[in-house]
């Protein structure tokens, strides 16, 4: 008896790969990208009411620039090698065992600077900038700036296909 191995068509394999990658996508990054399109036409009063007062503001050639900033720094403690069992306690950190009390940590910084370009009191463009390495990390942090304003846009879920 011979067995045959079914071949998966290339299109089906690519579709499965795309679906798998989409499952790993950052929904906050998707929302931040959506906001760049959805906020065009938003009045300045609405922007100020949902995003607050900008950190910086400038006017040049009949254009207003409102700049908002969001930053998050996280650290993950990692104990130095010890001579006994250690365990993580949520209130006290690494405890137990024998060894050195020296700890080092993994530090991650994410930041976003969102600049809203307005003409005649209406948003024309939203530009994101960051020193964060990964685009998904940067856009995820940009979401913190635009999330309150996104709640004012009812058609967002329909346009994202959700």
Helix count equals: 5
Strand content: 25-35%
Which oligomerization state do the chains in this entry correspond to? single chain
Estimated radius of gyration: 23 Å
**SSE pattern, N- to C-terminal:** HHHEEEEEEHH
3D shape: elongated
CATH topology descriptor of the domain at 37-73 and 111-159: Beta-lactamase Inhibitory Protein, Chain:B, domain 1
* Number of β-strand runs: 6
What do the pLDDT scores average to? 75
The residue fraction in helices comes out at: 25-40%
Entry keywords:
5 helices, Beta-lactamase Inhibitory Protein, Chain:B, domain 1, elongated, 33% helix, 33% strand, 162 residues, alpha+beta
Question: What this model shows, in words?
Answer:
The chain is of the alpha+beta class. The chain has a domain of 86 residues: Beta-lactamase Inhibitory Protein, Chain:B, domain 1, CATH 3.30.1450. It is built from 5 helices and 6 strands, in the order αααββββββαα. 17% of the residues are buried. The N terminus is likely disordered.
Write the layout of secondary structure elements.
Blueprint: H1 10-23, H2 27-38, H3 44-51, E1 56-60, E2 63-79, E3 87-89, E4 93-95, E5 103-119, E6 122-129, H4 135-150, H5 156-159
Antiparallel strand pairs: 1-2, 2-5, 3-4, 5-6
């Amino acid at each position: 008896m011979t067995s045959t191995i079914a071949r998966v068509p290339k299109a089906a394999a690519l579709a499965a790969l795309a679906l798998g990658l989409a499952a790993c996508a950052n929904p906050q990054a998707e929302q931040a990208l959506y906001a760049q399109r959805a906020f065009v036409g938003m009045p300045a009063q609405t922007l100020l009411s949902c995003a607050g007062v900008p950190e910086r503001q400038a006017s040049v050639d009949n254009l207003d620039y409102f700049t908002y900033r969001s930053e998050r720094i996280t650290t993950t403690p990692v104990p130095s090698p010890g001579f006994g069992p250690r365990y993580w306690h949520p209130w006290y950190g690494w405890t137990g065992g024998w060894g050195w009390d020296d700890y080092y940590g993994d530090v991650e910084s994410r930041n976003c600077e969102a600049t809203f370009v307005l003409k005649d009191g209406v948003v024309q463009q939203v530009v994101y900038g960051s020193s964060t390495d990964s685009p998904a990390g940067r856009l995820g942090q940009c979401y913190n700036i635009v999330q309150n304003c996104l709640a004012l846009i009812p058609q967002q879920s329909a346009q994202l296909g959700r």
